[in-house]
Amino acid sequence: MRNKYASRREKTLSLEAQIKDMEAKIGRMEEENANKNRLLEERSKMLAKYVEQRNSAEAKLNHTEEEYASTMSRLTESLEKCEKVGRLNMSLNEHKRYQRLYMAKLIATGVSSQAVAW
């Protein structure tokens, strides 16, 4: 009977030891899971921050592109106006040249300089 009791006692102690080991393993696993969850939360926050920064950068880029397009449009208009003024200036200079030649011809033909001025 003592052997039977000792054998049961050993089995009970063995099972209790296994239960304690399993409880310790479960505790470590729960701690690991808590650490993993904390890391996942941190990474999730970082990802949200990066997404926000990317969206902000995209908005700035779009605004800059719009400003660039507007500036290019104004520069193109200014260039066209400058070209038009240049053409008008060339026409005016050509007109003045022909006017001077005409006045010189009139003076050469004997018309008084006072009459030419009028």
In short, what is this structure?
This protein is mainly α. Helix content is about 95%, strand content about 0%.
Distance N terminus to C terminus?
A: 151 Å
Average of per-residue pLDDT values: 89
How helical, in percent, are the residues?
Answer: over 70%
Unreliable residue stretches: none
Radius of gyration computed on alpha carbons:
49 Å
Fraction of residues in β-strands: under 5%
H and E string: HH
Shape: rod-shaped
Describe it.
The protein is mainly alpha-helical and 118 residues long. It has two helices and no strands. The chain has helices at residues 2-108, 113-117. It is rod-shaped.
List keywords for this structure.
118 residues, mainly alpha, 2 helices
Q: What is the fold's blueprint, element by element?
A:
Layout: H1 2-108, H2 113-117
